[in-house]
Task: structure prediction
Amino acid sequence: MQHELSSALFKEAQQVIPGGVNSPARAFRAVGREPVFIARGDGCRLWDVDGNEYVDFVGSWGPLFLGHRHPEVIAALEGALDTSTSFGAPTVAEVKMAELICEIVPSIEMVRLVNSGTEATMSALRVARGYTGRDLAIKFVGNYHGHVDSLLVKAGSGLATLGISDSGGVPEGFAATTLPLPYNGAAAVQEAFSTYGDRLAAVILEPVAGNMGCVPPRPGFLQALRDLCSENGTVLIFDEVMTGFRVALGGAQSLYGVTPDMTTLGKVIGGGLPIGAFGGRREIMQHVAPLGAVYQGGTLSGNPLAVAGGLAMLRALRGDPGIYDRVEASSARLQAGVMSAAEDAGVKLTSNRVGSMVTFFFTDRTVHDWDGAASCDTELFGHYFREMLACGIYLPCSQFEAVFVSDAHGETEIDLAINAAAKVLAGVAETQPASPSQG
Ligand SMILES: *Cc1c(COP(=O)(O)O)cnc(C)c1O
Result:
């Protein structure tokens, strides 16, 4: 597989874009090679600028639950293009989109559209603080909520990959409003509430973590948070930017039967266009301007193209009752196939999966928090990633991300991935017969 054009473009890009990329997560640094420049996608397939073809298990990091260029999404975008690209004024489609979100996710009684997941979490946190009149927020180590200043503390994703737990440029006072606690550690949360209860505005979490690799909530964890928040008048925020409309139509809250006060959305709800949303109980959302005193706005919020794409996406998901079972079956097939290949090869591998989010961790520990995820052999992951890429399997370029399966992945593509993994893992066993060195 040749990557000459990608390589030349990457040199050019680095002159004018920091690190040559517009988001650190796509830089391939953690896996020890240069990124591949993508030319186009169709269904679950991708082609790079050098003409190499891949099966895509990134799906733009979550949004493409229906694959690239889904006909209904493309048709809706073409229709919207005929009207203009933006008005900065109310439109019919954004009301339909809000109604559909509220219908599918009943804990959301009112919703505001924004342009990214980061904006959604930033705004939800501000509303929680405005509503409660309190400053402090609990977050969980290894959970990522976008690049919101006060939440760039012990965040997973790109930060975990780069090995920096805190970002530069965040005033100490901002970070000090955040209490980072271990994921799935209900006892630590209980303790924090007994110390700070009446100062806690919000608890924000990924109800299924995806940004330290896929880490499901332990039984009872979400309910324990729900109870503590209710007892203390604290706003429980489920950051469902990744899980919303993915782990189930109604998100993680419908899967686990725990109701948050506020929810943040993004990724899938845009069908690949830039969009996010935050919403929740009417009583809380009434604090948002112009109804209430918490300011939040956006020139391009509710953008007609993003809303058209998103609305088509949500309608397609709601209109196809079999879709979540199909994607569940494909994802289970992938998980079982790769795990059995690892066993055959004698490579220590642990996997976590919730619906179409799957992570293969290069460790023999169970992974239910950041310490578990951090025990992985990231050197070995890097080798696996590079070899899989050479086999035409495009994976997330970090141990601390989830593989995303879409409805466009058929048995053929799942089996291509399993066969590639079997080949690569067998090769690992040959080159590293003893216990692999820790990265
Ligand atoms: C991706 C993600 C975000 C940030 O969304 P952006 O659109 O990248 O700003 C926030 N929270 C979670 C859980 C995410 O996975």
User: Anything to note?
Assistant: The pocket of pyridoxal-5'-phosphate is lined by residues 116-118, 121, 144-146, 206, 210-211, 239, 241-242, 266, 276 (CB under 6 Å). The chain is about 40% helix and 15% strand. The chain has a mean pLDDT of 95. The first helix runs from residue 4 to 16.
